[in-house]
Design the sequence.
């Protein structure tokens, strides 16, 4: 991940870092060892916690070695076995019955779950900020704009509620996609033949599906029939993350318009050192919105890569499509996390200049009431309307309430 | 829609045709007239069924006139008013209180709902065919292939069950996206100010939201807070349609591999005249799979256009993004419908050559059992495995059953 | 093509219509017949002009029949043979030695060439309008804006010159892509084995490559080694068209910002009936820019489909990728043509309010000169700068001249 | 860059790494200092080589600080000034007159040029390998395949020549895109007002454009009118890189088909440790092709992001689009470099089993000659064709020669 070329990337923390992916893979192998041991296939001594060897693993070295087999699991296993000198049973049994895709898919699902949780935390903060904005400014009239031109009056509360509505859609979908992330334990071609053989030869208890369920439970995931080649869990997650950046980018684009100096109804939160220019000391650039918008313009193509990959999962393991997913997913995840945090910060500190909104409404004159006059004239009641934009707001208040109610009833994931 | 350059397009029937879009817009305006009349805003005489004037409307003429205002609603209204000579009240009241986006969004939602229903019908046929294939061939052993190379044995039943699993994922998502399609009735800037004014000035009953709900109910849709600028209903539908083509394309790619003459485990259903070549009379090309795959390679970019549009919904109506959606949605819808029908036909008539599968397994020799021998050797039980690939199928049967059970419990949307 | 959902589509005229594609295919087959006859393979009587039967061909019927073989050439040939009752020799010889892909690729190249010519005509008009704007307004000072905020002064002439620069880049690339469009005459698998056989068996003169060159020349195209599976001619054309919409969309986005009522430095050309609203009679929406922007947001994904197709051209004819190209190319072509014409019209009639620009510069106060003061202060020469933004324009004039010179030296394609 | 999730990434070396981007930015600032000094604006003492401070710069720290201003130039300058304690004149003059986009655009162009050079080196190796394959195997007959089915005979030499043809198209375009990369020196809003002011106030010689040209020459690039908002240099480079991955992915897909065990006409070069499986010791997976294909499926969406960005360059510096380019460009560059090296290795060691090709041709029987028989029969000469596929190869040899000639005449960039 090149933070230099993706300013704000540090906000994504360790999510989808090489270190985290290694740790997630180790957790998956640990769970499998424990399940093998618990079922009586492997001896108790095999059930060690592999995360203890994490510090002996050099992800940069793994990355280079990963090319030979086309994935990082193979060199990881070599490294793990090498590091397990004191645990020969674990070295003997690690990964037995699994396939690389089991390990990596489940590891990426774990990383994705962590990412989704962090996104949802940011969304909670956004929802809180937006609900406050919607409520506080429910009577702040500003010009509604369509196709860039003044249309009819709205309130800033309504605009904030609309922003909120998009964020709530995203929250629904991220939650749901997160809830539908399964572990992957299927064996070489999705038949669980390896685990089944091990169970039979060792006269262990339970069947292979039970063994897979047991391992899945140890990493806190449901098991599902092997999905080596049916990738809805991945594309759904990608779509949900993109639904999030869609919502945030739409907010950012509004802020970018309304923070233009000629409009100046909104301003980004001021923080020392932010928004500066390399050459123009007076400038305060709306940097958060710029960076959020960047993520939003980028995400759809990444999610589309996941779909393209999904439809190319030929055979029992794809000839390139699986490999497409990894970086697309990690990049999309990190971009989304960055934008999530930036949006939360933007909304929490957004400066709303209601005075300026009112002045622009005043200077817009009767344009904002043209529809009202037109409708009234249409039914011969021209005289029954006045010239106060605050009287032509329709159901804005009730719409705000409806959206606020939805926000409040969201519960926890 | 250019069927010449999208062979099979006729399978999409009238969905998203200009004629259908016009009819859907007329249904929306009809519903609004009825709601206005029912609320006491407009006289009873205004509540006419506008579909009666559909035949007087020339979509080709509308299409040309649509450029001036940037959307087809404006010229449609002019044409409707012109055609309503015998219904002056209807001409007077049509569209009052609405905005172009209300009419077109709701019309496209209606078209989308029809499209989703037709897709789900095809999916039902696919599910039936796949369930039969999975069950019938649950013991037909063939070579599992990963990264194009022979891996371990599977059964064709399991492969069909995996295909089914992808289709069931698509079914879930198309159903859900369909269920979450709302009507759009929000007025010029989403405040319902126009409808509210009309209700007030005419002392009619109910509020603007009730009026909007009433109109929505008349086209069989739920009302939601105006979503002029929050486009999750659209992107969700696009994602679900793409999840469908993902699943079908993945099947098609398998068929294209397995129908190669050197493999020849599968063949497309034979129909007189299909699959021919312009110059090589002997050829029987897997045309259905080719065309399905074409749709699957195309869909992700179209769904991504919808996401890109979604994040560009600035202001109270976007400055170009809304306009992006229309053709992207229609194209994606028609492509999906075509591929849906082609996939249903492919699966219903798929020729499965289990004898050929068995012969290839036999000629693969011990390669398919290398994992088994490796695992057995690993625990010193080499002698306890035999050389019959049919004995190394793990939980294939149980996995098939799990997926079949899911297929059966699907219920209706 | 659904003009209703792509307002302005009629501007693309007949380009890439079903009728045109049919005519182009007939021109290709005509050229081949003539070449066969000229070489002495076919009798003179076979060399008929097949466009004469165009009117007997029903594209809608062809479109339906095209599904069986997966492309429109097969049913076209059946229809042509059926219509050639009076020309049995032509019916006998039509298409002999060719493959469907020869006919359709060359036909699409012909359509693409016509499209490129029409785009270049619009570009010429744009160049003329932009050069005039750049020259006329080279001293009209307005606020330069970066990251939406006021930066330093520029002139509108410079902005127009920058727009022009983008259009000139597009002109270069469309011209070059057009010049590199080859005919496709390769036979079933790109070996020209069929034509070679016919030449040998009939003791005709010349070799198969000469025959192919002869046919290519008859449709005014160079011949190149068969490019059935190497698609740079197609992706280059797609990239060049997208480079055009990139340039126009960037102009449109500027217009959309600068035509906002709070800025109002630019306005779209006024035409009766354009820019109207279905409900707000006062509005004049910047419809041209909205529609241009729509095309610009859409084109990159279509060009990407062509690249994706290009990399999937497996075997000697692809298993779906070729089929992806057709509609993507036609859609991209028509969208580009529409946007080309709209941009030409926008620029020819653009209203530039230099007074408004000056007033906004004045009201921006010293912000626009902060860089100047900062630089001067930095070297202790604060007193040597004045407060006139017109004195801080650097090399704007010379830059304009450089770009104008490039525009003028363009020559003809 | 996460090599763990993009196996083979180390092949891209330092290109587009944070370290390299920092160095490139320092080279740009160094060139500017030298130009300022040379023109007499800054004292001679200011003209220091800033790369000497590179080792004091921590890219990870810069990356974090880059968020505040939205780009890495601002914190870089702070760090540079801090590190220039012994060079107060350099600290004083560094970056004066420039804008962040000048520095970063030119730096990325330098990185891109280095990337293009490395890609072209790999392409040279590919061309060499492909030319050898085409020539060596010009008489090796194999089955031509269209839509996955046997068509007519071809030679492997012709297939290799077709692969070569695609690579030569890529070579043309990468060379041309590289040649058209300009430096960016335009100042805050592309007017060169800052440099112009400095020249005037210090009575230095030359004008601002001459100064910009001088700086550009010092980094070996041509100067062009500021292209802050006209991004053809970037999109052209992206398109050319994608044209490369298109060509390589098409080769990889052929290898993946022809290396299937049931076909086995080709095999990847064997190297100890490559292609292994985590669980199936017998497998030799075609890993290079899998990884090349992965890059090819990914590139079009990245290039499309660059186009999307290009059309969003509003104002004198964009509100997010510029920021989109950086990581898209770096990712596309690194992916292309990786795939370039992998393709060169694949082709240099490709195992061609001409015996297997001949056996498959034999087993295909008369199918491969159906076209020949059909054509001969059509003109009543059935008896004049024999059953040897080697006699039905048309102009394959001449086509190979034409492509080889093009390869040889390539010259150097």
Sequence:
């Amino acid at each position: 991940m090149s933070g230099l070329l993706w300013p704000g990337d540090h906000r994504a923390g360790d999510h989808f870092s090489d270190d985290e992916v290694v740790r997630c893979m180790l957790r998956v192998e640990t769970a499998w060892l424990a399940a093998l041991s618990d079922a009586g296939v492997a001896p108790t001594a095999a059930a060690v916690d592999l995360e203890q060897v994490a510090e002996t693993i050099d992800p940069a070295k793994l990355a280079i070695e990963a090319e030979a087999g086309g994935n990082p699991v193979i060199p990881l296993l070599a490294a793990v076995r090498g590091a397990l000198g004191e645990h020969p049973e674990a070295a003997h049994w690690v990964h037995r019955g699994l396939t690389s895709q089991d390990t990596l898919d489940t590891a990426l699902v774990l990383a994705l779950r962590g990412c989704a949780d962090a996104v949802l935390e940011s969304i909670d903060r956004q929802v809180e900020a937006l609900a406050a904005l919607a409520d506080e400014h429910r009577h702040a009239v500003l010009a509604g704009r369509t196709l860039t031109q003044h249309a009819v009056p709205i309130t800033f509360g309504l605009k904030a509620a609309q922003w909120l509505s998009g964020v709530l859609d995203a929250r629904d979908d991220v939650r749901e996609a997160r809830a539908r992330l399964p572990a992957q334990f299927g064996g070489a071609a999705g038949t669980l033949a390896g685990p089944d053989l091990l169970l039979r030869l060792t006269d262990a208890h339970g069947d292979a599906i039970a063994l897979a369920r047991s391992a899945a439970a140890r990493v806190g995931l449901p098991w599902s029939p092997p999905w080596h080649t049916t990738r809805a869990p991945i594309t759904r997650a990608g779509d949900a993350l993109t639904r999030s950046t869609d919502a945030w980018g739409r907010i950012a684009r509004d802020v970018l318009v309304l923070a233009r100096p000629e409009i100046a109804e909104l301003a980004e939160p001021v923080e020392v050192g932010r928004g500066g220019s390399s050459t123009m000391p007076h400038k305060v650039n709306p940097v958060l919105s710029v960076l959020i918008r960047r993520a939003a313009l980028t995400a759809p193509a990444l999610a589309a890569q996941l779909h393209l990959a999904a439809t190319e999962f030929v055979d029992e393991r794809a000839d390139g499509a699986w490999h497409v997913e990894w970086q697309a997913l990690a990049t999309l995840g990190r971009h989304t996390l960055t934008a999530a945090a930036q949006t939360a910060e933007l909304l929490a500190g957004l400066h709303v200049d209601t005075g300026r909104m009112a002045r622009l409404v005043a200077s817009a004159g009767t344009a904002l009431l043209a529809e009202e006059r037109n409708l009234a004239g249409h039914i011969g009641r021209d005289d029954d309307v006045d010239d106060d934009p605050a009287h032509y707001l329709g159901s804005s208040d009730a719409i705000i309430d409806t959206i606020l109610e939805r926000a409040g009833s969201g519960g926890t994931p």
